[in-house]
DNA sequence: TGCTATTTGTGTTTTAAAACACCAAAAGTA
DNA sequence: TACTTTTGGTGTTTTAAAACACAAATAGCA
């Protein structure tokens, strides 16, 4: 990781129309944009880890990041996948706690960190913005509650199907409109779906032999979305 | 369930020092207290159910409530337990979604419902209050993420131990300082811990024969808290 | 009060998924 | 380039927990 305050993608975090900051006044944007630092991460670099103290609001302007918790025997559970423009580490920041999860880039990524004090100032003075954050957290909590139930109750095939659908939903497709636009290792796919690596590999092969997907290295091509949704629903 | 706007416990939701509303100005409290309805529920009555549209912020002024999601084959997972003074159903309200979980009283309870519009008005005009809610949601999200990992990774004994510690943490002890102050059925204890009823019964008996707890009907008496915490950590 | 329904409790069987063991392929790296 | 490490892949064994089955006790109810 190295610091670099000069690449302009960081501005995106504040001005991008998909950002929660979209709609802030110029004064407010100025407060935020005067207090940030930027950095780049290569693939598989740690952005923060469990136990660290949040230094600000981290915005992902480029790349992809996995957020996971370590459980029994170091086994990791991916709780979220971040894409640009999006925020990471805001839960701990707003809870005034240290991180309870870790964030690692799964491809080359760029982030900027917005100073906490400036952010709090803007929140306090802008009720609509505060409501947006409340809305964001509430949705995230709903997602987490749903995951708890599916990860504990669905069978392996259902869990993997759900993960694939989640990845499509988060990152979309390549230009061919059928290849999922993210390359996870079998191990990460397993960590996302609460299963062992061998079971992820095995179940992926099953899906492939059933012509639900096709595999090409780390690329996953969706051949039968309806069927995948069906497997997701029925378990 | 029946309506009754005259019992004074409802005022508690706004004035109680443990409430997020504590610290609001009199004007703000007035706005909120002018727009609420109260109701009483007997044991095992539905307060809201999955799919319902939230009508306002529900405050529990008396009693105990379980919040759960239905999963595969109707199997329920308890995601939260509410105590007075506390709020229920706020996630869906703030996410502008229908409920994704259901709430059922596990003993006689009293709730009041604060009008959504009035609440939003107060949030928009009081940044500190908004931050309190952001903090509340962020903590709840942390709890949910932790649960996801422990429910999927811990073994039965560890999961049950964690649930018992969670119940102690939430409801505390009776006057004897060792009986958990909530009476859940074995089925509910199972739904809280992601296991079948028979396994909850079996594991409780194991704990009892190991002198970690003692059982007296639905009463659970903690005999060896250190050991219970140990089982929770290692199990 | 007796009758039904639910909850509690225990033994047995089945099964889904982990654990283990091993090899092949690919990707780093010296 | 060869060498090491990581990732992908597959068969076999083991095991934790569900599923099933059936009493006993308790609670709800007419």
Low-confidence spans of chain A: none
The name CATH uses for the topology of the largest domain in chain A is: Jelly Rolls
| CATH superfamily (homologous) name of the largest domain in chain A | Jelly Rolls
Q: Determine the oligomeric state from the structure.
A: homodimer
Descriptors:
homodimer; 235 residues; alpha+beta; Jelly Rolls; Arc Repressor Mutant, subunit A; 2 domains; 9 helices; 11 strands; 45% helix; 23% strand; DNA-binding
Structural write-up:
Two copies of one chain form a homodimer. In chain A, a hairpin with a 5-residue loop joins strand 5 and strand 6. In chain A, the strands form three sheets. Chain A has a five-stranded antiparallel beta sheet. In chain A, helix 6 packs across helix 7, helix 6 (156-171) crosses helix 9 and helix 7 crosses helix 8 (197-209). The mean pLDDT of chain A is 94. Chain A is 45% helix and 23% strand. Chain A has helices at residues 9-15, 26-33, 90-95, 116-125, 127-153, 156-171, 186-193, 197-209, 225-234, and strands spanning 2-3, 36-41, 46-48, 56-62, 65-70, 76-82, 86-88, 102-105, 109-115, 213-216, 219-222. By secondary structure, the first copy, chain A, is of the alpha+beta class. Chain A binds a DNA duplex (30 and 30 nucleotides) through residues 155-156, 185-187, 195-199, 201-202, 205, 217.
């Amino acid at each position: 990781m190295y610091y670099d305050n000069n690449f302009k993608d960081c501005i995106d975090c504040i001005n991008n129309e998909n950002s929660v900051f979209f709609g802030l006044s110029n004064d407010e944007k100025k407060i935020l944009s005067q207090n940030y630092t930027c950095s780049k991460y290569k693939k598989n670099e740690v952005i923060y880890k469990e136990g660290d103290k949040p230094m600000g609001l981290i915005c992902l302007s480029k790349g992809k990041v996995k957020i996971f918790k370590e459980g029994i025997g170091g086994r990791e559970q991916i709780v979220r996948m971040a894409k640009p423009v999006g925020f990471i580490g805001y839960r701990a920041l707003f809870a005034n706690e240290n991180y309870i999860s870790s964030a690692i880039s799964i491809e080359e990524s760029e982030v900027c960190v917005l100073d906490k004090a400036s952010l709090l100032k803007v929140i306090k003075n802008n009720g609509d913005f505060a409501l947006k954050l409340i809305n964001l957290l509430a949705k995230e909590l709903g997602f987490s509650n749903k995951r708890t139930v599916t990860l504990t109750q669905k069978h392996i095939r259902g869990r993997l199907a759900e993960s694939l659908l989640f990845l499509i939903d988060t990152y979309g497709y390549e230009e061919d409109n059928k290849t999922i636009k993210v390359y996870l290792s079998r191990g990460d796919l397993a960590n996302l779906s609460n299963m062992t690596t061998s079971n992820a590999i095995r179940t992926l092969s099953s899906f492939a032999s059933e012509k639900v997907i096709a595999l090409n290295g780390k690329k996953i091509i969706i051949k039968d979305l309806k069927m995948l949704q069906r497997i997701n629903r029925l378990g």
